[in-house]
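step=encode ok
step=design start
structure_in=
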């Protein structure tokens, strides 16, 4: 899961994240100073998600 997030950060891909409580978030992950939290930039603002609350990550790759 962390490898997918690292690749998305490096390549500027969007990711779909599902948390253990079932909520979802789609956005662009950013490098975080805290390795235990995922920083996501979305149209609604920036969010910090604790990694232990992330149950699923999928990269969204746009073909141009």
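sequence_out=
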């Amino acid at each position: 899961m962390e490898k997918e997030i690292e690749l998305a950060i490096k390549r500027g891909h969007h990711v779909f994240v599902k948390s253990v409580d079932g909520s979802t978030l789609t956005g662009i992950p950013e490098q975080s100073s805290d390795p235990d939290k995922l920083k996501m930039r979305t149209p609604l603002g920036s969010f910090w998600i604790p990694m232990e609350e992330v149950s699923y990550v999928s990269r969204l790759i746009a073909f141009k």
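step=design ok
step=annotate ok -> Strands lie at 14-19, 24-30, 37-42, 45-50, 54-60.
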